[in-house]
């Protein structure tokens, strides 16, 4: 799991660096005598989409998504574990059905229709590929957390965050 985390961190860092270079080039070409670059705005948009959606999977892994835990913290420990199990199962189901299955459907449809981006002229299926990729990561992370909750895997291997903590709004 740590290798996947590290690979995702490197990918997100690389995409961010590429976006910084892309936007810097766009700004530079606006002020030089040559004409402004025609593809940089679209590339920055697609990089931001990839960073945002992959970043959501990364935040899910690190348990840093915003969560309101006022009610769950008031529950008895046993019931709290059941609610946590249900929440993880629902996250897995959503990621599998909507992001993986729906994302693959969307991706394949755009490939079949030969839908191309306006400036870069690349198949839009590549842009949409981030949806099932991120959904697959969320499914993997959900399964891992479910197994930890059931005591099948140890928390020692999990460096993603503190097992009992989530980012929360406390009232």
From TrEMBL:
Gene Ontology biological process terms, A to Z: C4-dicarboxylate transport
Subcellular location: Cell inner membrane
A GO CC term attached to the entry: plasma membrane
Transmembrane segments: 7-28, 43-60, 85-106, 126-143
Coiled coil: none
Molecular function via GO: transmembrane transporter activity
Matching Pfam families: DctQ (PF04290)
Keywords in alphabetical order: Cell inner membrane, Cell membrane, Membrane, Transmembrane, Transmembrane helix, Transport
Membrane topology annotation: Multi-pass membrane protein
Main localization category: membrane
The organism's place on the tree of life at top rank: Bacteria
Domain Tripartite ATP-independent periplasmic transporters DctQ component: 19-150
Its biological purpose: Part of the tripartite ATP-independent periplasmic (TRAP) transport system.
Family, as annotated: Belongs to the TRAP transporter small permease family.
Subunit structure: The complex comprises the extracytoplasmic solute receptor protein and the two transmembrane proteins.
UniProt name for this protein: TRAP transporter small permease protein
Organism: Microbulbifer thermotolerans
Classification of source organism: Bacteria, Pseudomonadati, Pseudomonadota, Gammaproteobacteria, Cellvibrionales
